[in-house]
Amino acid sequence: MDRTQIEALLNEVRAGRTGVEQALDRLRDLPFEDIGFAKLDHHRSLRTGMPEVIFAAGKTPPQVAAIFAHMAQHGGNVLATRVTPEMWAAVQALEPRDKQPHAQFHETARAITLSQAPAVPGKGTIAVVCAGTSDLSVAEEAAVTARLMGNEVELIADVGVAGIHRLLAQKTSLQSARVLIVCAGMEGALPTVVGGLVNAPVLAVPTSVGYGASFGGVAALLGMLNTCSPNVSVVNIDNGFGAACIASLINHL
217 near 144, Cβ under 8 Å? Predict the structure, then answer.
């Protein structure tokens, strides 16, 4: 339950449209709901401006489905990241057939979303840029997350430095973005190049793409941390979700 929903509920109580007992019933799971194997933080949106998100890796399909269903019952938007097709099937099996809107599976992003509450719109566009098609799953995770948080997103794919003319062809889009998320593996050079072209924050996401000496994204991470572009900041390897959260916070300031 976010700030907007709390305010609406309190206004209903003040206007007499909702009784005190009914309001207490709707608030009973704040600050968290204990469902045995998990404690769902329904209060997080009020504290941080962002709801709890389901990190599905390491969980079983029934666990992901149960958490998703409980979070959906509270009326907010729901996001699960790093899901498998089996987890998606489990969520579908628990979702009432007559429910509107339905949850959606984003295969490339490995995410499930349920959009059932209007999000506060961001002030500008978030550009999500990736070096190659191999980086696309991380970029799509960032794009899906940012859109669910109320941001307009433009995805610019396959514009790595090996063919830098592809990047320069997107100069107008890059320079019109309020925040940029740049995903790259191999040597991780793309965020530095983008940072030198724009006057906006650039969130660099190293990906675990590359040959043996890339060390699963560590080479890209170190390259990005040593960037000479002062408007570039770096998140963890493959963390498209984290980059999107930070970009959304910036875009709502």
Answer: no
